[in-house]
Every structure is written in C-alpha cells, then in structure tokens.
Specification:
Number of helices: 15
Shape: globular
CATH topology of the largest domain: Cytochrome Bc1 Complex, Chain A, domain 1
Number of domains: 2
CATH class of the largest domain: Alpha Beta
CATH architecture of the largest domain: 2-Layer Sandwich
Distance between the termini: 64 Å
Radius of gyration: 23 Å
Order of helices and strands: EEEEEHHEEHHHHHEHEEHHEEHHHHHE
Number of strands: 13
CATH superfamily of the largest domain: Metalloenzyme, LuxS/M16 peptidase-like
C-alpha cells in the first residue's frame, strides 16, 4: 500500500484515488488504515457568491434545512450521527461552497453515506412550509445574534456595502438580508435546490480506514441510482474598483473600544497575489514581530489589539487591517501611524519578514497533516478551489515567494485610493 502522506522535500503529497459516478458525483479517497475511523466530507459548489436577485442568504439557509431529509423521518441528522459514535459533525457555508462533514467509526461509515445520499436525493419530499418557516426564523435570529446585536457587527455590513455595489452578492455577506430570507418561498427554495445541489456539483472525500475498492462499492450503493446530472454554470461578476477612498463612522452601543478597520479589494483565491498578501498580513500584525503590531501596541502604545488577514474566493478577495484603540486615543492619530507603517512595509519589506510568514504557513500545513479529518478538509478545499486535490500546490506558491513578489502584490492592491475605512465609536446609537 502507498503511504498515506509522502514528502517531496518540504512538500507533502497525499495518496488520493479519484473516481466519478455516472450521476456526476466526484469522489476522492485517501486511504489511511492507521486508525479505525473514516472522515466524510461532502462539498457543494454553492455559496453566497452564487446568490443574486433577492436570494441573499439562501446558501446558508440551505445549510440549516439540509440537516433533515425524507428517510430521517423528522429526526435531526446530528442526532442520528451521535448515536453511532460520530465526532466532529458540523456544516459551514462560505462565499463559494457549502460543506457537511463528520468523522465516523469505520463500522458506521455507511450511516454517514446514507445521510449524505438522502439529503442529496430526497430533500424536497420532506420540505414543507412549516419547516421552511422555522429555519427562516432560525437564520434571522442568527443574523441578529452574530451581527446586529454583537460588538462591531454593524461594521461588517458597512465595509461590505462600501466595497461592493448594489446587486453584487458579496455586498450582503453570507448571512444574507432579512428581507430576502423572509421572502424565501417554497418555490424559490425548490428552484435553488434543483440548480445547485445536483450530484455533479458536489465532491465527496472519504479519508481513513477505507480502501478505494470499498469506497467505489459503497458510493455505488448509496449514490449509484441517482440520474445523471450536469454542473451548473456560475455567474462571473467583474471585480469592483473604487474611484476614491471611502471613509465612514459608526456608533456601536455594544463596542467597548474605538476600532479602525481598513479594507481593500484583493486577488482571487489560489493565486500568487493571494498568498503574497497573506504573508504581508503576517508581517504586519503577528504579535511580537509584526510591524503594525509593534508600532501600535508595543512602541507607542496606541492600541490594545491589531489584526490583519486576507479572505479570498472565486470573485476576488479582500485584505483587512483592524486596530482596537486604547481609551482616549484619537482615531486620526492611530490612522497616521497605520499610513506610515503600510507605506514603509510596501517599500522596505525585509527578506526575513517574508521568510517568517512563509514558515508559519508551512508549519500550519504540516500540522494539519496530522489527523484524517484535517487531511480530508484540505483535500476537499483544494479540489473545490482549483480542481486539483493536492495541497502541495498551495504550499508551492508560498515557498516561491520573495520580497519582490510581496512588494509587487502590495503595490497592485493597496493603493490609498482603493481603501475603505470604517471607524466604530462606542456609545449610544
């Protein structure tokens, strides 16, 4: 048997057997009999970037509704999974994908496959108006809890509204708008399901104590009777470009400190500029070594907390920089320091800073090779993003970085005219 993970120098390569069922479902099998467990990850190529025309929040609404299907007879799928010993069972929705996953005892693998097949093929017969209305209220309550009634929640909407024009799906965040969620009729939900949740739009990863032959037989049993399907086209949106910097100020009664958040449009996922800006973010905000962290938290100090991160998807990405200021510090004073540090980082980034960021990402990837659930997640994520299941491609982009590439990416994306700044002030609304 081939080793589950082989190393090409510093680059890991996972053993993967891939096949496609007649219905269109792609399956990736990563064999590792080291533990009597199997990780099951199902990914659908649909997220908030595929919404529009009043369907914001639909992909996330489906994440909630998809936890029941016809042959579960009204039982929640997490309840069934717990009874057979599953761990790490969860679901998540992003801009480009919706994921369902569980780690099963080897003897209970077919329970997970039954559940995944049942909701893929038998979701609509179990849908009624009562169930839809219940999940609409759950999702709207989640929006209130996590965004509207949470500290600094309103700034997330303000930044998205400044970065994206009306009608762009990324303007409304994955949670969606109240009015769109409330207007989700059964007819619109059924149309969304028939478009995006077909087998050809999904990839299933099985990792752990299962052989390729066993996987083909099991998947044929549970998914083989589904009719052939085709992957739906995904709408392409031109990436917006700001004509001038945008500055907004909010008052948040739940915020304890003044926060400055800056954001820029960024490159699409799985590109050279994507990883270059990620390394720049590490050079700026890593506690102890980051330039911006040292300038605002250690040297002055003006802030209690500094963060910088990149989020990216098929329609483009974003770079965010935040600073939670100490009491009494004026936003303008901290803003001037941020300006100076960003300018100096673009012009004077050092090789050691790039190398440190690359090593952090390399160490994180190596750490994630320990555990079949994490390996399954990496395989599925890479496959959905690029069509190739090997995570070595992403690490290769990091290892190829140097100062010139990071500086060039920063120059392309972080122009002052393309900046959004939202200042959140504590106090009564």
């Amino acid at each position: 048997m081939t080793a589950p993970v082989e190393w090409d120098g510093a680059v890991p390569r996972f053993a993967v057997h891939a096949f496609t069922l007649p219905c269109g479902l792609e399956v990736l099998v990563h064999e590792d009999p080291g533990v009597p467990l199997c990780a099951v990850w199902m990914g659908y190529r649909v997220g908030s970037s595929d919404e529009g025309d009043g369907t914001s929040g639909f992909a996330h609404l489906f994440e909630h509704m998809f936890k029941n299907s016809l042959h579960l007879n009204g039982r929640h799928h997490y309840e069934v999974l717990r009874e057979v010993g599953a761990t790490d069972a969860n679901a998540q929705t992003g801009t480009d994908r919706t994921l369902y996953h569980e780690t099963m005892p080897r003897a209970a693998l077919e329970v997970a496959l039954w559940i995944e097949a049942d909701r893929m093929g038998y979701f609509l017969p179990a849908l009624d108006d009562v169930r839809l209305a219940r999940q609409q209220e759950v999702v709207r309550a989640e929006r209130r809890q996590r965004y509207e009634n949470a500290p600094y929640g309103p700034e997330r909407f303000a930044v998205a509204e400044a970065l994206y024009p009306e009608g762009h799906p990324l303007r409304y965040l994955t949670i969606g708008r109240h009015e769109d969620i409330a207007a989700a009729t059964r007819a619109r939900v059924e149309d969304f399901y028939r478009t995006w949740y077909v087998p050809a739009n999904a990839t299933l990863v099985l990792a752990g104590d299962v052989t390729a032959g066993e996987a083909e037989a099991l998947c044929g049993r549970w998914f083989g009777s589904f009719p052939a399907s085709t992957r739906p086209p995904r709408r392409a949106w031109p990436q917006p470009a700001l004509a001038a910097p945008v500055e907004r100020e909010l008052t948040d009664p739940l915020a304890a400190l003044v926060r400055i958040r800056r954001a820029w449009h960024g490159p699409a996922v799985a590109t050279d500029d994507d990883v270059a800006l990620d390394v720049l973010a590490l050079a700026l905000a890593t506690p102890g070594t980051g330039r911006l962290w040292r300038a605002l938290v250690y040297d002055r100090p003006l802030a209690q907390r500094v963060t910088a991160y990149v989020q990216s998807g098929r329609l483009g990405g974003e770079l965010h920089v935040t600073a939670d200021l100490r009491a009494g510090v004026a936003p303008a004073e901290a803003g001037r320091v941020i300006d100076d540090v960003l300018a100096a980082a673009v012009d004077g980034l050092e090789p050691t800073e790039v190398a440190r960021g690359v090593r952090r990402r390399e160490a994180g990837l190596v750490w994630r090779t320990d555990g079949i659930g994490r390996r399954a997640a990496m395989l599925l994520g890479a496959h959905l993003a690029t069509g190739a299941p090997q995570v070595a491609d992403e690490l290769g982009r990091y290892l190829a970085l140097d100062v010139a590439r990071v500086r060039a990416a920063a120059t392309r994306w972080l122009a002052p005219a393309r900046r959004v700044q939202v200042v959140t002030l504590p106090g009564r609304a």
